[in-house]
Specification:
This protein is α/β, with parallel strands linked by helices and 942 residues long. Helices cover 48% and strands 11% of the residues.
Length: 942
């Protein structure tokens, strides 16, 4: 092609190549075997130009390349780069990747569990660690040039998301921020905020997947394409995505084929033809079993696959089902390699613990190429599964949705058993964002030509709804930022109250709230312009028509109020009259569909006042059951009696009367007409209107007639403009109240937190007291409770195991609340201290209520959960793993995770506790040593 260029074009192309060779990007690109995508190049060039970047791209598209380029730039410039991730597993994985590239001397790791080479120029850490370093003013921040925030969309997380915003707001201005996010629909909005708080930020959005994704539904023996073949599968939004008509037809047939109990009236069972059709239908449509799905995928060359099941127990059950079905996905060579890797990775686990951890059953499944992956597993086991899956030695993984969060485990196929999951409170449909995150694992870059997302057929599946999930590739990023007690004292200590308030107003949460009122503000401006026009229209040359209109409005409001009072009084009188009715009373129904002569069969008095008909309970007053003169038996309501009713006559109701018998109704209705048909109902005399004697109404009418505008010829025309003015003014005030409710919301919450901390002597104006400085070192959901326990000496005199039990209540939260069973607690001092912690929490809870700090808004202290206290105490007391897990009734992975969180908080308490005349700091360190043994101590970094 070069010979086709003109000399000028060839010269320009040569200059461009030379210019690119002079950049830091050129040697960086040579480090990879594959070429970079356009969005990666654009982001890297922006970084090299000194700009911050926000990269929003689908899962598996390679956005971490941009983060690695920031590492490359930092090393070239002799500066530091911090690479942050939301979870420790991701930190460990990224640490291993960077060590392979740059060597262990240049890379460090800081998580709650590990501290490796903390002075290295490249440090991988969890986001919380960086937040704590910023508040502590750590020396490690000196020379920091770049911060990579991987999975930055995690700031939507309602429990931990605030940490991301804290870091972004408080990072020094000299630090360049690299934000890596899944594809979100409001990336530009997030980029605008980053531009506001961090300076020049380039937003790069890529919605194309590197590997095309095909969507399927597996029903019985057939795999249906979700979309018709001509649909674009490349990850870009197609102009039109038509749902497969065969699938729509199947759904219509299946979802209308329901059993109808009315069919029994035609015979003992549904007709033979219906049964035969149902048998034929069932023979080709069913929800395939788990082993059947894996065999089908294997036969079609769609392994390795990740099957997402939203239950840990179901993941383990799926593995067992595959074993019982005799599935073997590995040959002998692969089985041997699996055993070698597993034995090497688990060599540090004591032999006596292997049986407790289910090691041998786990190994058998791995050798067959099958595994589970969920948070209840031992971290070491999970990491082995991840390694074997990446190596192709495990081909079928059954996982919970936690695997979708950034872990590098791409597959050829992803299977979703159901589109509903338990969210902690109820079974809810998965969102488009969750569907995108889960199916984003399908398709391995550089290995697969295409990825496949398979949804299993379930009764009631709506292909249109599924197409909506698959077609909506983006979801909005919503801030979950809320001030906390620890945040408040740290901010006031560094910046003072006024500056802290201003900083919080720069949060993404407030940025979004302020943007949401822009449209409302525009409407208010339009309304105000309209009010000016209406005001001109109601101007009267005789006087102040606004004042006259106010008198008319006050008069109307007073008359309406009295009319409502009169109507309410009549309803009360009517209800009282209905309560006096008895069976056999002949009444006249004054209004409604059944107005006219009627015989009371049952007065329908609400339960609790008298004997109701068949125990029927009425919550809106008496509902008499009557027989009308037209032979109808109906239960009437209070709305049929706007005025009081009285019995005109009485009749005996035959004991043989059956309201369901047409003959009985006919005979009794005839007797009713004979007995009372000639009686004319007494006309109800309406009481004198309250308005006639109301002094306020008389005063307003006099003032109205005396007003100058009352004699204006155009009075009614002016009045119409005045009414429009009033309605628009009322609407405008409602809009202004909405604006007021949305602006300064973060700052108002901060003010309430500061007021409570001042009350407790943590703050005095802009000064942080000694109590406040202690609180500044305690991070966590129950930071204030921990600080109060230290202040009141609740943990003094406790031994290390007892202290571990108490601290566990600050971090543990049961997966499902079980208020019916009291948790088992250690005896003695530990039990008394736990009781005192609950008492202090009760005092703080009452104080939060007084200062209008509500847990429902994501602020405040939840009640401490004592459910892990016994397990923490036993483990710290050197009990065996088998005994502790059996008594705790808890998976090994959960046990290890909670122990590590207790260790983390014990470390904070050791740093915050008084150094003199106190045993807490010393015993906290001993408690850490007691807990950090056995399975808890196995390093998750290799």
């Amino acid at each position: 092609m070069t010979e086709d260029l003109t000399p000028a074009e060839a010269y320009a192309a040569a200059r461009a190549r030379n210019a690119e060779q002079a950049t830091a990007l050129a040697p960086f690109r040579e480090m990879y075997e594959f070429g970079l995508d356009p969005f990666q190049i654009e982001a890297c060039q922006a970084l090299e130009a000194g700009k911050g970047v926000l990269v929003a791209a689908p899962t598996g598209s390679g956005k971490t390349i941009v983060g690695e380029f920031a590492v490359h730039l930092a090393l070239l410039q002799g500066r530091k780069c911090f690479y942050t991730t939301p979870i420790k597993a991701l930190s460990n994985q990224k640490y291993a990747d960077l060590v392979k590239r740059y060597g262990p001397g240049k890379v460090g790791l800081l998580t709650g569990d590990n501290s490796i080479n903390g002075d290295a120029p490249i440090i991988v850490m969890t986001t919380e660690v960086l937040r704590n370093m910023l508040y502590a003013g750590s020396q490690a921040l000196s020379g920091l040039g770049y911060v990579v925030m991987d999975e930055v969309h995690y700031l939507s997380d309602r429990f931990r998301g605030a940490v991301w915003e804290e870091v972004i707001i408080h990072l020094p201005e000299s630090v360049t921020l690299v934000s890596l996010s899944a594809t979100v629909s409001n990336a530009e909005e997030f980029g605008d905020w980053l531009d506001t708080v961090r300076g020049d930020t380039e937003v790069i959005v890529s919605e194309s997947r590197p590997v095309p994704l095909w969507q399927h539904v597996l029903a019985g023996r057939r795999m249906y394409d979700l979309f018709e073949e001509e649909t674009d599968h490349g990850g870009r939004a197609a102009s039109r995505r038509e749902v497969n008509p065969d699938l729509m037809r199947l759904a219509r047939t299946e979802n209308t084929r329901t059993y109808n109990p009315r069919e029994r009236r035609r015979g003992k069972m549904v007709r033979e033809a219906d049964r035969e059709r149902e048998r034929r239908q069932r023979s080709r449509i069913w929800t395939p079993g788990r082993p059947e799905v894996i065999e089908r995928l294997d036969a079609e060359g769609l392994l390795p696959a990740i099957t997402f099941i939203f239950s840990r127990a179901a993941c383990e059950a799926a593995v067992q089902q595959c074993l019982y079905a005799g599935l073997r996905l590995n040959d002998d060579d692969a089985r041997e390699r699996v055993r070698e890797i597993v034995e090497e990775r688990t060599a540090s686990i004591p032999t006596e613990d292997l049986h407790v951890l289910g090691y041998y059953e786990w190994l058998e499944a791995l050798e067959r190429g099958i595994a589970a992956h969920h948070a209840g597993m031992l971290p070491t086991f999970k990491e082995v599964v991840e390694e074997l899956f990446v190596r192709g030695l495990v081909k079928a993984v059954f996982a919970t949705e936690t695997l979708a969060l950034g872990i590098n485990m791409p597959a050829r196929s992803v299977v979703l058993e159901k589109l509903v999951k338990w969210n902690g409170e109820q079974h809810a449909d998965i969102t488009p964002g969750e569907y995108t995150q889960l199916t984003g694992r399908a398709g391995r870059r550089g290995i697969d030509v295409e990825g496949h997302a398979v949804v299993l057929w379930q009764r009631g599946l709506d292909p249109g709804h599924l197409a909506g999930l698959a077609g909506t590739r983006t979801y909005p990023l919503r801030s979950s930022f809320k001030p906390s007690y620890n945040m408040a004292v740290n901010l006031v200590d560094q910046f003072g109250r006024h500056r802290s308030r201003e900083l919080l107003e720069t949060s993404f949460a407030q940025f979004q709230a302020d943007r949401s009122v822009v449209g409302i503000s525009r409407q208010v401006q339009k309304n105000e312009e309209g009010l000016e026009g209406y005001k001109a229209g109601m101007t009267c040359h005789l006087g102040d028509f606004e004042e006259y209109a106010r008198l008319r409005r006050d008069l109307k409001d007073r008359e309406t109020e009295l009319a409502k009072q009169g109507a309410a009084q009549r309803r009360v009188q009517a209800a009282a009259s209905l309560e006096k009715l008895k069976p056999g009373d002949v009444i006249h129904v004054p209004t409604g569909k059944f107005a006219g002569l009627a015989l009371v069969l049952d007065p329908g008095i609400p339960a609790g006042r008298t004997n109701g008909h068949r125990g029927f309970e009425h919550h809106d007053g008496p509902r008499p059951l009557v027989l009308t003169a037209e032979r109808q038996v109906k239960r009437l309501a209070s709305i049929d009696f706007p005025i009081p009713v009285e019995a005109m006559e009485r009749m005996r109701i035959p004991k043989s009367f059956n309201p369901r018998s047409p003959q009985s109704r006919r005979d009794l209705a005839s007797a009713l007409r004979t007995k009372a048909g000639h009686i004319n109902p007494e006309r109800h005399r309406r009481d004198r209107s309250p308005a006639a004697d109301d002094r306020e109404i008389a005063r307003l009418r006099t003032a109205l007639r005396a007003h100058p505008c009352h004699g204006c010829d155009e009075r009614e025309d002016h009045a119409r403009w005045a009414e429009r003015y009033h309605r628009l003014q009322r609407d405008t005030r409602q809009l202004e109240r909405r604006i007021e409710g949305r602006t300064n919301t973060i700052a108002r919450t901060f003010d309430r937190i500061v007021a409570l901390l001042t009350e407790l002597d943590y703050l005095r104006g802009d000064d942080v007291t000694d109590n406040g400085k202690r609180l500044a070192r305690l991070y966590g959901e129950l930071d204030l409770l921990a600080s109060e326990c230290l202040r009141e000496g609740v943990w003094e005199g406790l031994n290390p195991a007892e202290l571990a039990a108490c601290v566990s209540a600050l971090v543990y939260e049961a997966r499902q609340a079980d208020d019916a069973v009291a948790p088992k607690l250690p005896t003695g001092k530990a039990k008394a201290a736990l009781g005192e912690m609950v008492r202090i929490w009760g005092r703080l809870d009452a104080l939060e209520e007084e200062f209008r700090i509500h847990q429902a808004e994501g602020v405040g202290q939840r009640e401490p959960d004592l459910g892990f206290a016994w397990a923490a105490h036993q483990w710290a007391s050197d009990r065996g793993l088998d005994e502790v897990l059996r008594e705790a009734e808890m998976p090994a992975g959960d046990f290890v995770r909670w122990c590590k969180q207790v260790i983390d908080v014990l470390g904070q308490i050791a740093a915050a506790a008084p150094k003199e005349n106190s045993t807490v700091a010393k015993n906290a360190r001993k408690a850490v040593d007691s807990l950090l043994r056995g399975v808890v101590a196995y390093s998750s970094v290799t």
